[in-house]
Amino acid sequence: MAGKPKLHYFNGRGRMESIRWLLASAGVEFEEKFIDTPEDLDKLKNDGHLMFLQVPMVEIDGMKMVQTRAILNYIATKYNLYGKDIKERALIDMYTEGMADLNDMILMLPMCPPDQKEAKIAQIKEKTTNRYLPVFEKVLKSHGQDYLVGNRLSRADIQLVELLYYVEEVDPSLMANFPLLKVLVEACRESCYAKDF
Ligand SMILES: N[C@@H](CCC(=O)N[C@@H](CS)C(=O)NCC(=O)O)C(=O)O
Known about the structure:
Elements: E1 6-9, H1 17-25, E2 31-34, H2 38-46, E3 57-60, E4 63-66, H3 68-78, H4 86-107, H5 114-143, H6 155-170, H7 179-195
Parallel strand pairs: 1-2
Antiparallel strand pairs: 1-3, 3-4
Helix pairs in contact: 1-3, 1-6, 4-5, 4-6
The chain binds glutathione.
The site of glutathione has 8 residues, from loops.
């Protein structure tokens, strides 16, 4: 039997967090090897384990996978979280690419120079409420189902809930006009508490 996937990244959310969420949602146990020092990262690079000399890197099924999206695609496919056919997959890709655009904006916020921070936060708030969240609220409203695609859990739902957690951290009031998204986050919170995560 293959061992647990081993995740190599810093002890922070960053680009690895969606991978952690996806594995956890699929019920897959994993190990983490945190990169604590520049020397740890150099060692991984010098050992030839990082194709583009970057992390995240995930050891899974005998591979040393890099590139966040490639890793997410593999896990989602393996654990049946990627739609039932190519059209569902196309929809999931469109949704998750939109989520990634907003996610990247939020992820980069700590790197923003202090004098530009206020403007950046205002831009994130504007895009969150006018561009991104309305899309997902509208999808849920249009078909009245619990999940975004195909009436069953997919990576799109998992990545959306992760994103909504970040949105709440920026400003909880950003969710005010999106009742169905609020329900999704609360349902996830309850199931996480029930699982004692
Ligand atoms: N496209 C890559 C980007 C990876 C990336 O930028 N990784 C950063 C950490 S978040 C890194 O490894 N930086 C160290 C370096 O480039 O030397 C992915 O999505 O995995």
